[in-house]
Amino acid sequence: MDVESILRPSRLFFVLVGFWPSENKKKPKLCRIKTYLIGIFVVTLAIDQCRTMLTLGTDAASLAEYSVDAVGLIVMSTKVIPFVVQRDSLLSMLSKTNGLSKHEEASNGQNIVKHWKLRHTIAVKYLTRLYLIVLVTYISAPLILQDKGFPLRGNFPSFIVNTSWYILAYVTESIMLSLATSGVLVCDMLLILFVCDLCSELNCTALLLEELGQGQRDFTTIVEKHVAALNYGKSFCDVTSVVFLFQAIVTTSAICLAGYTAMKTTSTIILTKMLMVLLTTMMQLFINCYIGEIITEAFLIVRTAIEDSDWLFCPSKDQKGAFLILLRTEKPLRLGVGTFGVMNLKSFTEFMYNALSYLAVLNTMIRGQ
């Protein structure tokens, strides 16, 4: 199971963002430039929308109206920028993913590999469709609703609408928004790939431990496989810890602002956009929390397998290896939110509760003015 064969259905997005593995080996500078350009597009759009929101949002109604695009782009920035900064680490993990995948093919856990490969495919398809729906909604809403404007508000002066440059400006902004969305989609695809590969490795390790008592496996191979999976998982958690911290903070705030905008706006196009942003933001937060949940669950499966195995009846050399695995499973592998907590389904409920609490406070404060 080569990593490029897994990513092939999404090759266009990875090539656009500069993360396609073989292209990175042949043209590393070009790929790096493409990655940085995506980051620049996202930051430029986010800064411009924030400027527009602060400049034109003179009251509660106008602030809610102009915050819709700013909220979405800020969330995109918190996802894309950390990945751009840690580009080399992510490419290194991609190479490790390739090695782990080959190791899985050589084991008897093909069913486990197929299971996680299927989950990866389903998740990628779902995310791709979701992002395409949001992107098409943003680009086509002004045209369908006959609103003489742009997909994003404030990037171009209003007088361009009545000039011959309107179509060119509209297409330019649509392309920039499409590239920025591709960057966010690739970030999510990488997360899903890393998690599925890690869980596949841990599940295969648990399977080998279950077969230990039947004399079918060499314990040294099992220990090496477990160590490789843990090192891979630790690298993943280290790379994404700060990323998830910023995303959790911004996403919670974004859900609060999106909810407030949805309650206050009377514009159909603004309401449509904000509902799309709210749906996407909540889905991203849920995916991040669910990723943390399944990583911990896969880790604990290994602990259960070693405890239920007949390692006490193995030779003394193998018993030492089993004891090392038990020691390593004392501290579960968890996806952290910086140093403030962990990502799991319980965290998702806490984030949503905090977002709704902030929304109630914000609504009360603005109503009291």
From TrEMBL:
The chain crosses the membrane at residues 126-145, 165-195, 242-263, 269-291. It comes from the Eukaryota. One of its GO terms (cellular component) is plasma membrane. It is a multi-pass membrane protein. It holds the Pfam family 7tm_6. The keyword Metal-binding does not apply. One of its GO terms (molecular function) is odorant binding. The keyword Isomerase does not apply. One of its GO terms (biological process) is signal transduction. Coiled coil: none annotated. Keywords: Cell membrane, Membrane, Olfaction, Receptor, Sensory transduction, Transducer, Transmembrane, Transmembrane helix. InterPro entries: 7tm6_olfct_rcpt. It is found in: Cell membrane. Belongs to the insect chemoreceptor superfamily. Heteromeric odorant receptor channel (TC 1.A.69) family. This is Odorant receptor. It comes from Sirex nitobei.
